[in-house]
């Protein structure tokens, strides 16, 4: 029986393409904006691959943030300077302060709250930035602040199993009675499954990986499918 519902934040509770596209339009208005989904997907791959090793290295994170827009554009033969890359990052961060909780995910949180089931968050990122997102989306209306773990703040990042053990200890729950929702296959699905959680993969960027059947209990192609799954599986 699933009793506890734990969520990732980025590209799970809100659509991360929106601030990316808005920053791209502002900083590089002459580029082909129809390429944004491709550049975003490549950018996220760089973040997902490199962030865990840089989680507690601010300068390393800054260089990665520049690289994750430089490299996708370079693949299309577009060269930008480090200064332009950082200008994009600053715009991206500014638009993230104006993000909105995705409508279907708001319904998910409402349903779980109405059922009286505990909810929590595990998110990788810098403390101030992730808590700003929590505040902007008003997540503490559904999830107690004590049940929100930010990697920099707690000193460990996904995919390390310790952070999943930490949320269980913090909430007083059992992993086998809990489900984790996330968009990242390795850091969310593989890590959560290895920690003993049930897993729901929001694969709305149509990523393809080996071993999905071993680590994913439910794959959802978009936010609405997550809502449908919760409606069917909420006790």
From TrEMBL:
* Cofactors named for this entry: Mg(2+)
One GO MF annotation is: phosphatase activity
UniProt-listed Gene3D superfamilies: 1.10.150.520, HAD superfamily/HAD-like
Keyword annotations from UniProtKB, A to Z: Hydrolase, Magnesium, Metal-binding
Instruction: Name the InterPro entries on file.
Output: HAD-like_hydrolase (IPR051400), HAD-like_sf (IPR036412), HAD-SF_hydro_IA (IPR006439), HAD_sf (IPR023214)
One GO term under biological process is:
small molecule metabolic process
Among NCBIfam families, the record links this protein to: HAD-SF-IA-v1
Q: What is this protein called?
A: HAD family hydrolase
């Amino acid at each position: 029986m699933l009793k506890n519902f734990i969520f990732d934040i980025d590209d799970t509770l809100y659509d991360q393409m929106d601030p990316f596209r808005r920053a791209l339009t502002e900083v590089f208005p002459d580029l082909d904006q129809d390429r944004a989904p491709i550049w975003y997907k490549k950018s996220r791959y760089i973040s997902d691959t490199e962030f865990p090793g840089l989680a507690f290295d601010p300068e390393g994170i800054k260089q990665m943030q520049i690289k994750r827009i430089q490299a996708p554009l370079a693949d299309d033969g577009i060269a930008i300077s480090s200064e332009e890359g950082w200008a994009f990052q600053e715009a991206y961060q500014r638009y993230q302060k104006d993000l909105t909780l995705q409508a279907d995910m708001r319904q998910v949180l409402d349903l779980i709250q109405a059922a009286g089931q505990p909810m929590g968050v595990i998110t990788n990122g810098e403390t101030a930035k992730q808590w700003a997102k929590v505040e902007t989306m008003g997540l503490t209306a559904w999830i107690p602040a004590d049940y929100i773990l930010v990697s920099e703040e707690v000193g460990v990042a996904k995919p390390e199993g310790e952070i999943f053990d930490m949320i269980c200890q913090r909430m007083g729950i059992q992993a086998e009675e809990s489900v984790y929702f996330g968009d990242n296959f390795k850091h969310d699905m593989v890590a959560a499954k290895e920690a003993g959680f049930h897993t729901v993969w929001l694969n709305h960027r149509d990523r393809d990986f080996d071993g999905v059947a071993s680590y994913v209990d439910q794959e959802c192609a978009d936010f609405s499918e997550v809502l449908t799954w919760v409606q069917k599986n909420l006790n």
